[in-house]
Amino acid sequence: MNKKSIILKWALALVMPALVATTLAGCGNDEDPFYDIAVAEVMDKGGNSGGGGGGGETPGGGGSTVSEVLKALEANMVSVPAGTFSMGAPSSDNDAADNEMPQHQVTLAAYKICKYEVTQEVWIAVMGSNPSSVKGNKLPVTDITYDDCLAFITKLNAMTRLNYRLPTEAEWEYAAIGGVAQAVYKYAGGNTLRDVCWAASNSENKTHEVGGKQANQLGLYDMSGNVAEWCLDWYGVYSSEAQTNPTGPTTGSRRVLRGGSRMDQASGVRVTSRSYAVPTTKNNYTGLRLVL
Questions:
Q1: What pLDDT digit, counting tens, does each position of 53-63 carry?
Q2: I need a surface site. Which of 28, 102, 191, 230 has the fewest CB within 10 A?
Q3: How far apart, in whole angstroms, are the C-alpha atoms of residue 85 and residue 108?
């Protein structure tokens, strides 16, 4: 064997294992034993620091690995069958604001929505830091702008090879009323606020761990109250025309927020109640929920 052949053989012996591991790590398959190679890179780039999370938060939070947290997130996505519903409040609803009318017909394709608001545990697993002013792995992540949400989703999708996104306003409301069940309740899951919602009257002015109240007909928690949730749409007035898979106005200055928060009175956490904020808004009572 000549000198060049020896050098080439030696170089391949060093390089090939790394190339194989890198290729397998990129597959993003939960069943693949090399899946954790990809998420380990996130941990190495700051995830282990906890991002000032307090209490020694790990990348997944509570001792969970990044991979475990992301797999749990996917498992918590609830299927919402396609359907048609009446979006908005009827004119007979004395609690409704003008921007909740006119009620109009909306048809949606099937999608999935997470049963929980995005927790600080999930945010840390993806971003390697925790922006929330009040820390807790199972608390909703807060103190995030609309653009922060998009950056989080972009990184989450790169890690999982899935297509998470924010819900449209129509998707949010359809899920809140139970999808095809179309439950006629004031709040998501029932008419008794204290059973289904953290609002101004019972929250003690603090955000609570997700899933602490009764779920709605789809098994979704905290669709009313706790933290307000960013939606994909620019805010705009409703039209009376029937729509299919609407995504809101094409331009605007404020993004839709739905669900109300721990700060709101009863009227603000109703399933048809609408709010909005400029995309740069961040506070300790606004978060997000994911759809697929």
A1: 333 334 455 56
A2: 191
A3: 9
